[in-house]
Design brief:
The complex is a heterodimer of chains A (510) and B (277). Chain A has a 5-stranded parallel β-sheet with strand order 11-14-17-10-18. Chain A has a 4-stranded mixed β-sheet with strand order 1-2-4-3. Chain A is elongated and about 85 Å long. In chain A, helix 7 (203-215) packs parallel to helix 17 (410-427) and helix 19 runs parallel beside helix 21 (493-500). In chain A, 38% of the residues lie in helices and 17% in strands. In chain A, strand 3, helix 1 (39-54) and strand 4 (63-69) form a beta-alpha-beta unit. Chain A is of the alpha/beta class and 510 residues long. With 277 residues, chain B is an alpha/beta fold. In chain B, strand 4, helix 3 (77-87) and strand 5 form a beta-alpha-beta unit. In chain B, helix 6 (161-171) runs parallel beside helix 7 (189-196). Classes of the chains: A alpha/beta (510), B alpha/beta (277). At the A-B interface, helix 7, helix 19 and helix 21 of A face helix 2, helix 10 and helix 11 of B.
């Protein structure tokens, strides 16, 4: 007799339906798994057998053949344990449910018949829904994250017994449902209490960060040690626009594949990733023996913060160029290609020179101009060209701080940012992009129209400051965001004038 | 390019007495500069940050008195003196140690063109196809010292081209101004040695002006705009400007761009904005 059970395998973030076919005959006792399984699946034979036995079901003296179809896709991981077990139990008529092809099964078995959580559950469920599956049975610990997929019935189970009883309608398991709002409320209570009002002065940098957050622009801060670059960067999470539902889903999906979701299993806040500068290429862009998303994909829809940019290995930084442009990364293997999205906002910080004090009022710089040139050359032109906003951070004089009036709270900045982002989402809804930073040259022609005055100003800047064409587009995009922040439909001269100020590195001194 | 020999009436009087004799001069650019009051600014090719700063400050100040700046078009202090002089709309003279077809170092070719296009002069005693040769460079130093009315040494090692120029200057009775250095600073050994041999110690541009008793030519300007008025008094950052004018940072940034593009102000990294004089 033959049974067929639905399951799924992930390649990158894309899912492929796998049919777990089980055939049991009264022949010489033997177990066999075929269909390009890797070692972890071959081992599942022993796990499944023991788990079934320990749950009290009799499977001795049979020839069991398991086929994972289609055979050309390489399969790995312990996700198929539950599907194989259910296939065998159905075949042996311990399960009498006739509608099993509506279900998909995911889960790793423990020897006592318990079901252990898996990584990538959300990603699998999103893909299962696309493939037309209506109901999913998976480990209870994964139920919450999976349940945010709309239109999919999710049942969390704890053991093989549970599952068999549920399928035989002898036990009632409620489908898992969650309300995003409730989780949000809990999350907000627990959120860390950092705020821009703690940073005194630095209005210019704060304004630049506000623009960056609103338009999703990449930003680099240049300043001496102790001028507050890291402090300013860490607080950007407090003013980033809220994620919409699609974004939440996308981000949680990647985090679930990487197996780093938090307690609630759902990522509701934009991620902020700050890898150390010793990070390897693979850890940054993804890959590895069993391909995993790297930091740039974990920062998808959020912020990748690279502190002390020139300290990073040069070749490590260069691999960022592609993903920064394409907003996705493709990792090629002999057996498969893995594609991970990487639409992140890059925030970087650096010192103006190796000793760190060039231009500082505190200390005299001891670097020769050659040293500084060498230091700047560590960051390639093409990479810098992809950073829309370059802003200088100078140390704040403590005597002056006392006089400064009250600082604006993150909450208030965020309100403006959210408004500006809404405008952008509305404007670009038919192009599948969310922010000004993603504008293509063609869309820029359409949405960044300039009047006579602003065109004149920009042309003057172009010749006077020796701007490249990329820099020209960069200024236009930033000006577009500035106009959105003040809720204006057309870019005006003042927006351009302000945008031109955010290009410190283009100046010849650096 | 013009070629003038010793008999030519344009041949600078100052150069007639120096030895070994100069047979002829190849000249590009403005010929009149050669007979004007000028100061040579010299120093090492491998300049320190402080050295560069000193060269800039002195050049800028001397330009206000319409003094021509002479140097050797080399890397380091030489280039800085030429560039700063051009930026302050002064006239500068570059004395090169190779032929015009072999501008050395190559990176300075653009600077060479800029000097000529901005009313400056480039001269050489070698015919255009002379390749750069290390033995020719000390020789051109006698033209640098001969053509100038005073020599300013920023920094340099003892027994370098810099000290050669200074000694030549001293031997023909030109004042040599030296920036004093610590005795442990390797780049200070040159100027310190010259000081012992009869150099004149200077610590600010005004010292040179006072030595010659010169008068300032350009006048300070009056500004109506609030930002410009503040900047004409001191260098200020965006945040400081915003505080002093009670305008928000956005307005400040907008105004700064306009002034910057009009060439009235410039930004110094880490410090803020200043008026370009």
């Amino acid at each position: 007799m033959l049974t067929k059970i639905n399951s799924i395998v992930l390649i990158g973030i894309e899912g492929f339906k796998i049919d777990v076919e089980v055939d049991i005959s009264n022949n010489l006792p033997k177990w066999e798994i075929v269909g390009l399984p890797d070692t972890s699946i071959k081992e599942s034979k022993e796990r499944v057998r023991t788990a079934i036995k320990n749950c009290g079901y009799e499977i001795r003296g049979k020839k069991i053949l398991i086929n994972l179809a289609p055979a050309e896709i390489k399969k790995e991981g312990a996700v198929f344990d539950l599907a194989i077990a259910i296939g065998i139990l159905t075949n042996l008529e311990y399960i009498k449910n006739k509608e099993l092809n509506n279900y998909a099964f995911l889960g790793e078995l423990s020897l006592d018949g318990k079901i252990n959580p898996i990584t990538g559950a959300l990603a699998m469920c999103i893909e299962l829904k696309k493939l037309g599956i209506k109901k999913v049975i998976l480990p209870k610990d994964n139920a919450i994250e999976a349940s945010i997929v709309k239109g999919l019935e999710v049942y969390g189970v704890e053991s093989i017994r549970d599952t068999v009883d549920f399928l035989n309608k002898e036990k009632d398991i409620k489908k898992t449902e969650i309300k995003l709002e409730e989780i949000l409320k809990i999350e907000e209570k627990n959120s860390t209490s950092i705020d821009y009002s703690e940073v005194k002065g630095q209005e210019n940098v704060k304004r630049a960060l506000e623009i960056a957050a609103a338009g999703g622009h990449n930003l680099i801060m240049i300043g001496s040690p102790g001028s507050g670059k890291t402090m300013l960067a860490r607080r950007i999470t407090t003013i980033l626009p809220d994620m919409n539902f699609e974004e939440t889903l996308e981000v949680t999906k990647i985090h679930s594949i990487a197996g780093i979701t938090n307690k609630n299993k759902i990522v509701l806040k934009r991620p902020f990733r700050s890898p150390h500068h010793t990070i390897s290429k693979v850890a940054l862009v993804g890959g590895g023996k069993t391909a995993k998303p790297g930091e740039i994909s974990l920062a998808h829809r959020g912020v990748l913060f690279l502190d002390e940019l020139p300290e990073f290995n040069k070749s490590t930084l260069e691999v960022l160029r592609g993903p920064l442009e394409d907003r996705k990364v493709l990792i090629s293997r002999v057996n498969a290609n893995y594609e991970y999205p990487s639409n992140f906002m890059l925030i970087a910080s650096m010192n103006p020179c190796p000793c760190g004090y060039y231009g500082s009022n505190e200390k005299e710089c001891t670097c020769s101009s050659r040293d500084i040139e060498k230091y700047m050359h560590k960051i390639s032109g093409p990479l810098l060209d992809r950073i829309d906003i370059q802003v200088e951070v100078s140390g704040v004089d403590y005597k002056k701080i006392a006089k400064v009036n009250k600082e604006e709270k993150s909450e208030d900045i965020k309100k403006r940012v959210n408004k500006a982002r809404k405008i952008q989402e509305e404007r670009y809804k038919e192009f599948n992009i969310f922010s000004n930073s993603e504008l293509t040259p063609k869309l820029m022609d359409k949405y960044c129209e300039l009047d006579e005055d602003s065109r004149e100003l920009l042309e003057k800047a172009f010749t006077k400051l020796n701007l490249s064409t990329r820099a020209y587009n960069r200024i236009l995009k930033v000006a577009r965001t500035i106009a959105d922040l003040s809720e204006r439909e057309k870019i005006n001269k003042n927006d351009i004038a302000e945008a031109i100020q955010y290009r410190s590195l283009d100046k010849k001194y650096f | 390019m013009k070629i003038i020999d010793r008999e030519d009436e344009l041949f600078p009087e100052k150069l007639k007495s120096i030895k070994p004799k100069i047979k002829q001069l190849y000249i590009e650019g403005n010929l009149e500069n050669l007979n004007k009051f000028s100061i040579a600014i010299i120093g090492s090719r491998n300049a320190s940050r402080e050295g560069e700063k000193t060269a800039r400050e002195f050049t800028k100040e001397l330009c206000k008195y319409e003094i021509n700046i002479i140097s050797g078009l080399a890397k380091g202090i030489d280039s800085i003196a030429h560039i700063e002089c051009l930026e302050n709309k002064g006239k500068t003279i570059a004395v090169i140690g190779s032929g015009f077809n072999y501008i050395y170092p190559k990176e300075n070719y653009k600077l060479y063109e800029e000097i000529i296009n901005n009313g400056g002069t480039v001269i050489s005693e070698y015919e255009p196809n002379t390749e750069p040769c290390s033995s020719n460079f000390p020789k051109r130093n006698r033209i640098v010292s001969g053509l100038s009315d005073g020599i300013l040494v920023i920094e340099g090692k003892h027994r370098s081209g810099t000290t050669i120029t200074c000694q030549m200057g001293l031997s023909i009775g030109k004042p040599v101004f030296c920036i004093p250095h610590s005795i442990y600073n390797p780049y200070g050994t040159g100027p310190n040695y010259i000081l012992k041999k009869g150099g004149i110690i200077v610590t600010k541009p005004q010292d040179i002006i006072d030595y010659f008793g010169l008068k300032k030519i350009k006048k300070e300007q009056e500004y109506k705009n609030e930002i410009l008025k503040l900047l004409s008094e001191e260098i200020l950052t965006r945040e400081e400007l915003s505080q002093k004018t009670n305008k928000n940072i956005i307005e400040i940034n907008q105004e700064l761009t306009v002034f910057e593009l009009d060439g009235i102000i410039e930004e110094i990294p880490g410090k803020g904005f200043r008026i370009i004089e």
